[in-house]
């Protein structure tokens, strides 16, 4: 196993442990009264992305959403250790397994998803619409 693969596996495990550790908090209710997801692992079908890019995507008129996705693909800096950071842009997810990370607001949550980047697939924290996440059964 090469160093990049070991780093990828280690990063994924760290993300999964962090999500599992936050599961107790996920069973509570958010300040706005919206129930938090009560799972650590789920599946996302929909658009997700870096915080600012995802916010911009949601603010885009429906008629322009497809163009926004095409013009703003997700991109991240990848360190020599295989860690992705400084991400921008959005991506389409199709039944992608994710670790539920944290509530952002009543409509969105942060998840850890494996996303295809220029140099391979990496786990990154992205925001998605709450309604697009289905808990693992």
Helix content: 25-40%
Question: How would you spell out the order of helices and strands?
Answer: HHEHHEEEEEE
Number of helices: 4
Number of strands: 7
What is the 3D form? globular
Summing up helix and strand content along with how strands pair, one would put the structural category as: alpha+beta
Distance between the termini: 32 Å
- Percent of sequence in beta strands: 35-45%
Number of domains: 1
Features:
137 residues, alpha+beta, five-stranded antiparallel sheet, 7 strands, 28% helix, globular
Structure description:
28% of the residues lie in helices and 40% in strands. The strands form two sheets. Strands 1, 4, 5, 6 and 7 form a five-stranded antiparallel beta sheet that branches. Strands 2-3 form a two-stranded antiparallel ribbon. It contains four helices and seven strands; from the N terminus they run H-H-E-H-H-E-E-E-E-E-E. Mean pLDDT is 81; it is low at 13-31. The termini are far apart. It is globular and about 35 Å long. The protein has one domain (3-135). Strand 4 (90-103) and strand 5 form a beta hairpin. The protein has helices at 3-21, 23-26, 51-59, 65-71; strands spanning 41-49, 75-78, 84-88, 90-103, 108-117, 120-129, 133-135. The chain has 137 residues and is α+β, with helices and mostly antiparallel strands.
């Amino acid at each position: 196993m090469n160093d990049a693969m070991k780093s990828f596996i280690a990063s994924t495990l760290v993300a999964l442990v962090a999500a599992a550790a936050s599961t107790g908090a996920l069973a509570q209710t958010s300040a706005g009264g919206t129930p938090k997801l009560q799972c650590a692992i789920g599946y996302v079908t929909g658009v997700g992305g870096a915080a600012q890019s995802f916010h911009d995507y949601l603010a885009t008129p429906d008629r322009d959403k497809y163009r926004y996705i095409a013009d703003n693909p997700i991109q991240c800096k990848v360190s020599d250790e295989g860690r992705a950071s400084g991400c921008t842009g959005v991506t389409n997810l199709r039944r992608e397994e994710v670790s539920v990370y944290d509530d952002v607001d009543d409509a969105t949550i942060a998840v850890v998803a494996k996303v295809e980047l220029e140099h391979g697939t990496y786990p990154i924290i992205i925001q998605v619409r709450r309604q697009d996440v289905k808990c693992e059964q």
